[in-house]
Amino acid sequence: MNGRKREKTMDLDDLQPRKKLPDIVLGEDISTLSAHELESRIARLEEEVARCRQAIASRHATRSAAENFFKK
């Protein structure tokens, strides 16, 4: 680095507060939502389902590892 400090730059987007997505309430009235809003809702729910499935797989892997460890 030739004795020179590299200046770090910050992205201006990092300074902006993050917009929180509205909470999805299961069973709420969706009759007033547009097709686009419904598609976004489905995408968010699918992401959450995938996240839950990943967490379940992780729990099963941990349990299997523990069972195998204690079988020996």
Summarize the structure.
The chain is mainly alpha-helical.
Description:
This protein is mainly alpha-helical. It has a domain at 33-72. Helices cover 51% and strands 0% of the residues. It has one helix spanning 35-71. The longest helix has 37 residues, at 35-71. It is flat and about 55 Å long. The protein starts with 34 loop residues before the first helix and ends with a helix.
Which terms would index this structure?
mainly alpha; 1 helix; single chain; 72 residues; 0% strand
Write the layout of secondary structure elements.
Elements: H1 35-71
User: How many strands in all?
Assistant: 0
Q: What's the number of helices?
A: 1
Work out the strand percent. Answer: under 5%
Q: What profile does the largest beta sheet have?
A: none
Instruction: Give Rg in angstroms.
Output: 23 Å
- The shape, in one word, is flat
Strand pairing plus helix content: what structural class?
mainly alpha
Low-confidence stretches: none
Compute the separation of the termini in Å: 53 Å
Give the overall pLDDT as a whole number: 84
Helical fraction: 40-55%
| Element order: H for helix, E for strand | H
